[in-house]
Design a protein that fits this description.
- By secondary structure, the protein is mostly helical.
- Helices cover about 60% and strands about 0% of the residues.
- The two termini are about 45 Å apart.
Length: about 500
């Protein structure tokens, strides 16, 4: 990652665009965003992939099946944002903390499950509030199943949308099925569970225990859950690794995780990150971002399309238009690290909460900079809350530090946010929004861009985009809308 100045902004000129990038590199780099959402330590998904691929090779999977396992391992948590709002509301705690801590508990041990659940309810709140959240969790029918089903279904759909093998999506859909038949979402048992799902469950659980508690505790956990959670044959294979110190050392080398995972991509010819595939992955991750909270269920896609429309009006080149589109789709990827207790709060944020949410542009920059194909617009995408007069956040940049992409995203982001429903207010009509934004023309917002945006808004262009927007992952956006509507019914 580039060196930062004292205010956290990289003043180095953007590097050249990567001409040829492997698709595996792009997905591997973006998994850090999924780790952030799932509350896991950075590199969780990549370590899980290394474990799964070693296990797959040792049990004799053929090249085609290994390929399906590889992409399933990288995308296994692609649906993790879809249950964040519900978990935060039910538990009354930060969803990332709850997810990380509950991942360690054995669901089949009811006493320990109850204790761990109680520990995670209403963290930081008064005892009465904690008890109320515990009772809400306890009395919610099929809570675990529904939460897991939402996550697994969404992850499987994203794998399909990206064109990966059906075996990859099937593996993701059943990753939380247990050998004994008490898993979710279907309750498959033994050999009914797809083999790749069995491998993934063992690999991801092993990784969490190994990272949090070390090798000895992880081995104890495997022995204890063999035959209940895990396929006993797979457990025996992993137990044979216990003395392979060199391999565990490789797994612990966070500096080389990305390279190690990309090097394992099966097949003689690596899958290249074509423009079409890069667009698809940007749209897919926009759906992941917007699924985090029901109040932003099309925010990223709308911002990207609004910014693209303004760019076209101003005669931007095709390559710049594509950068604007992708930067818009991914501008809020850092919000995957913000608790839904803050994102979905119906009232005014406290200073502490506001400071927390204002971290998300930094996380956007850090995530996108890891992706060679997106690194050249990483800073622009993360500057969407900056303003020409220096009154934006988090870096307080001024006009000469903000490029075309950053300026157009700033306008599109504010317009979309004001016209969309939020937890604390309904969406505003066009003229009211323009009445708020136009006084900042040429001070906070670029004058020519603001003029183009105002004309498009009054002509109904933005409304048509929001109503009729389509994209390569459009199915995911529609699913987000359905989940948005069902969430509103549930909390009404």
């Amino acid at each position: 990652m580039a060196a930062l100045s004292s205010n956290g902004f990289s003043h180095a000129a953007p590097g050249p665009r990567a001409r040829t990038v492997r698709f595996a590199e792009v997905i591997s780099a973006l998994t850090y965003a999924l780790d952030l959402t799932e509350g896991q330590r950075p590199g969780h998904t990549l370590r899980t992939a290394l474990i799964a691929m070693r296990l797959g090779e040792e049990i004799g999977l053929d090249a085609e099946t290994l390929g399906a396992l590889y992409y399933a391992a990288l995308l296994k948590d692609a649906g993790c944002s879809s249950n964040a709002a519900r978990m935060a509301a039910l538990f009354g705690s930060d969803d990332q903390h709850v997810k990380r801590d509950m991942r360690l508990v054995d669901w089949h041990d009811r006493w320990n499950l109850a204790r761990r659940t109680a520990r995670n309810c209403g963290i930081g709140r008064n005892p009465l509030a904690r008890i109320k959240h515990f009772l809400r969790v306890a009395h919610t029918p099929q809570m675990t199943r529904d939460i897991i089903a939402a996550r697994c279904e969404r992850g499987a759909q994203i794998a399909v949308a990206l064109g990966f093998p059906s075996a990859s999506s099937e593996a993701i859909a059943h990753v939380d099925e247990h050998w004994c038949g008490l898993g979710h979402p279907v309750g498959l048992a033994g050999d009914e569970i797809p083999l790749l799902s069995r491998v993934l469950l063992l690999a991801q659980t092993l990784e969490v225990y190994w990272t949090e508690h070390g090798l000895k505790a992880m081995l104890q956990m495997l022995r204890a859950r063999s035959g209940t959670w895990f396929d006993p044959t797979l457990v025996q294979r992993v137990l044979s690794w216990r003395h392979d110190a060199a391999w565990w050392s490789t797994l612990a080398d966070s500096d080389r995780l990305d390279q190690a995972v990309v090097a394992l991509e099966p097949g003689g010819t690596p899958m290249q990150a074509t423009d079409e595939r890069l667009d698809a992955i940007a749209y897919a991750f926009a759906a992941v971002i917007d699924a985090k909270t029901p109040f932003t269920y099309r925010h990223s896609t709308n911002v990207a399309q609004y910014a693209l429309g303004i760019s076209r009006q101003l005669g931007a080149s095709p390559s710049l238009q594509r950068d604007v589109l992708r930067a818009g789709l991914l501008h809020d990827i850092g919000k995957l690290g913000v608790s839904n207790r803050i994102l979905d709060k119906p009232g005014r944020l406290t200073e502490v909460e506001r400071a927390e949410i204002q971290k998300h542009p930094r996380w956007t920059w850090q995530i996108l900079e890891r992706v060679d194909a997106f690194a050249h617009f990483a800073s622009s995408s993360s500057h969407h809350h900056e303003r020409l007069d220096g009154n934006g956040y988090p870096w307080g940049l001024r006009d000469h530090q903000l490029d075309f992409t950053a300026r157009v995203l700033a306008i599109a982001d504010v317009y979309e946010a004001l016209t969309a429903d939020r937890p604390y207010r309904a969406g505003m009509p066009v003229e009211k929004v323009l009445g708020i934004m136009l006084p900042d023309r040429a001070t906070a917002f670029d004058a020519s861009m603001m003029d183009a945006a105002a004309q498009m808004a009054r002509d109904g262009d933005f409304a048509r985009i929001a109503e009729n927007g389509t994209d390569p992952a459009g199915t995911l956006a529609r699913l987000s809308e359905q989940r948005h509507e069902s969430h509103l019914r549930a909390v009404a």
